[in-house]
């Protein structure tokens, strides 16, 4: 009976390994609901039970009144600005801090001071800056006294302020929409905001529709304004794309009923919304029975199973009835027959799950074209695996490139790169790259892709995409540690920022590497610097906006928290690490310490002054020797509040 226990365990594994929805691309054509009843029926019929939740991943000043040389937000695509918690125009610094937006006269540094503070009852998350306007995105605070249903209460605000008078900012546009703020981009005069609102089918409550309030005027987005695709999903959401013209302050919206968007890539012409869908337990069971168990059963037992499958049973009832039939058959076997049966099942199970791993998760990409207020669906696609972040996606020469990791059964993993044409058809691919590892960082640069995978050693891959139909692995380099973020130095060199890790997988410190990729077939690590510590952390490992780099100034700055020592002599340092970086050498120029207990947020420079912005201080230091010029304590100043 031990063998039977093994078989039973296989069925349990088959039912519990993954409990999400299989990608069922029954209808990739975009549709629009005719009315509310059609929307409700669609969600009721197509929603699959969800046993888990995958959170959304949270994600350049354009004009200046100053002629100073200043840094801008570290972005992915030139001309596509990304909202952040700190912005500068070369004279003032604008910072999200708790429920406030600080406006600080930063240049010249000797005279730096807080000019005003925008006080909010809600929770700002990110800002854009354009000329004399600041755009603020965030979540409206809950009204706990008037909350009939918390599903309906999540709301995103977009507030636009006129800051031509820095000491007297004025609210000139106030937009409130149901749902969660996901991400945003700014292209010229247009801001594109993505809001995601989970859709819950939970009778007898009606399914909510998105609601937009503009300057106290409220509008409900009707069902016949919502676009959808005809395939099931484990968790639907309204994804609303809003385009705002910062000159006229007019906006347009388009709402799609899709899965929960997890990653976003935006070029100057297109938005790509990506999310992962997983195989569900019923599909695993069904395929396991059809491909492994049933072919090894005698015909009379197969007949009984077919009778059950043709009956009017719920899925879980059918599963247990089939289990009972198989149980009866195994119990009728003698020990030798049972042993032989189990050997066949075990062998075929291994092959089955190895093959199924490649289909266990898939990424759905929805492509939308953008042109001013025009937002149009173009096409969608699915590729095996999941994406790490926005840098796993790219658009070049009309094609879309995406790098994915398939996390299969039994901790197996596979890495792939796919090239899709303008209509989102796969035209080229490299699959099964670095088997057993997963992607930690990606950077697409024109006709090349640089990919870092990791398990216990860091392979740095160079991939040629000059022929999109035949991607080609050119060369790779293996070295200790892992680069969590890749940043271009120039066309021949790549900066890697990550962690130094020993052969046993223990983190020994933060590591900066310079990779020479001038010979694509033979990439080299030409210099490195390791900041050691028992425990090291930097927000720049996963948030590229915390990474400051200037080739002209040979400057690289990252926030860090470093702990070292023993149990009795443990010390922790928080602040900025400032590096001299060039193609020949990487040196730690120095450290700018931040007060303990306050989080380091961002760094930027204006001319030859390096500013660090935290929740408590804005500190100004000379870049050449890091000597302190000024320190503005934010919460002890006298403010003009609005």
Sheet-strand content, in percent, reads over 45%
The number of distinct β-strands equals 42
Low-confidence stretches: 1-26, 49-65, 637-642
- Rg over C-alpha atoms, rounded to the nearest angstrom: 28 Å
Distance between the termini: 75 Å
- Order of the strands making up the biggest sheet: 1-15-17-16-12-11-2
* Residue-averaged pLDDT: 85
- Biggest sheet features: 7 strands, mixed
The helical percent reads 10-25%
Q: Name the structural class.
A: mainly beta
Tell me the number of helical segments per DSSP (H or I, 4 or more residues long).
6
Q: So what's the overall shape?
A: globular
Describe the overall structure.
Helices cover 14% and strands 46% of the residues. It has a seven-stranded mixed beta sheet, with no helix packed on it. Strands 7-8-9-10-13-14 form a six-stranded antiparallel beta sheet, with no helix packed on it. It is mainly beta and 642 residues long. The radius of gyration is 28 Å and the shape is globular. The chain contains six helices and 42 strands. Among the domains are: 2-26 and 281-358, no CATH class; 120-278; 390-535, Methylamine Dehydrogenase, Chain H. A hairpin with a 4-residue loop joins strand 35 (548-550) and strand 36.
């Amino acid at each position: 009976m031990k063998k039977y226990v093994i078989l039973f365990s296989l069925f349990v594994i088959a039912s519990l390994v993954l409990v999400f929805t299989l990608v069922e691309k029954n209808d990739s054509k975009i549709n629009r609901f005719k009315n509310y009843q059609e929307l409700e029926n669609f969600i009721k019929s197509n929603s699959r039970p969800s046993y888990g939740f995958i959170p959304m991943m949270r994600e350049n000043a354009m004009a200046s009144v100053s002629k100073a040389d200043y840094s801008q937000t570290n972005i992915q695509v030139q001309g596509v600005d990304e909202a952040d918690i700190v912005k500068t125009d070369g004279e003032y610094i604008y910072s999200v801090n708790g429920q406030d937006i600080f406006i600080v006269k930063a240049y010249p540094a000797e005279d730096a001071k807080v000019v005003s503070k925008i006080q909010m009852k809600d929770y700002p998350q990110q800002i854009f800056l354009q000329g004399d306007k600041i755009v603020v995105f965030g979540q409206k605070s809950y009204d706990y006294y008037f909350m009939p249903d918390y599903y309906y209460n999540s709301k995103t605000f977009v507030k636009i302020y006129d800051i031509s008078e820095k000491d007297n900012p004025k609210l000139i546009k106030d937009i409130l929409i149901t749902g969660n703020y996901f991400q945003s981009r700014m292209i010229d005069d247009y801001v594109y905001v993505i809001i995601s609102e989970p859709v819950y089918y939970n009778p007898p409550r009606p399914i909510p529709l998105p609601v937009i309030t503009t300057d106290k005027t409220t509008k409900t987005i009707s069902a016949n304004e919502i676009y959808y695709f005809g395939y099931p999903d484990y968790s639907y959401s309204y994804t609303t794309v809003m385009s705002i013209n910062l000159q006229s302050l007019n906006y347009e919206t388009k709402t799609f009923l899709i899965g929960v968007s997890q990653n976003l890539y935006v070029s100057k012409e297109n938005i790509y919304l990506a999310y992962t869908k997983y195989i569900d337990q019923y599909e695993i069971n069904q395929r396991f029975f059809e491909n492994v168990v049933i072919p090894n059963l005698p015909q009379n037992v197969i007949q009984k199973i077919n009778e059950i499958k043709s009956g009017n049973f719920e899925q879980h009832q059918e599963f247990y009835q089939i289990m009972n039939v198989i149980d009866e058959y195994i119990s009728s076997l003698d020990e030798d027959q049972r042993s032989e049966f189990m050997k066949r099942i075990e062998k075929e199970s291994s092959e089955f799950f190895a093959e199924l791993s490649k289909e266990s998760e898939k990424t759905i990409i929805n492509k939308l074209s953008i042109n001013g207020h025009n937002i149009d669906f173009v096409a969608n696609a699915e590729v095996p695996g999941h994406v790490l972040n926005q840098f796993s996606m790219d658009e070049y020469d009309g094609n879309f490139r995406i790098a994915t990791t398939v996390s299969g059964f039994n901790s197996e993993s596979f890495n792939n790169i796919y090239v899709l044409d303008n209509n989102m058809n796969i035209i080229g691919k490299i699959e099964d790259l670095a088997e057993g590892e997963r992607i930690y960082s990606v950077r697409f640069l024109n006709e090349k892709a640089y990919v870092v995978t990791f398990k216990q050693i860091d392979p740095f891959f160079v991939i040629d995409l000059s022929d999109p139909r035949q991607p080609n692995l050119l060369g790779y380099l293996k070295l200790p540690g892992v680069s969590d973020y890749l940043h271009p130095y120039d066309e021949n060199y790549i900066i890697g920022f990550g962690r130094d890790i020993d052969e046993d997988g223990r983190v020994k410190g933060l590591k900066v590497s310079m990779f020479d990729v001038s010979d694509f077939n033979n990439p080299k690590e030409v210099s490195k610097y390791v900041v050691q510590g028992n425990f090291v952390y930097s927000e720049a490992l996963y948030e590229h906006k915390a990474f400051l780099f200037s080739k002209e100034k040979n400057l690289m700055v990252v926030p860090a928290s470093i702990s070292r020592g023993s149990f009795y002599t443990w010390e922790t340092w928080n602040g900025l690490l400032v590096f001299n970086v060039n193609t020949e050498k990487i040196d730690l120029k120095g450290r700018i310490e931040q007060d303990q207990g306050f989080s380091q947020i961002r760094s930027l420079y204006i001319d030859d002054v390096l500013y660090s912005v935290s929740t408590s201080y804005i500190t100004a230091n000379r870049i050449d020797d890091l000597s302190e010029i000024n320190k503005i304590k934010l919460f002890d100043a006298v403010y003009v509040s609005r």
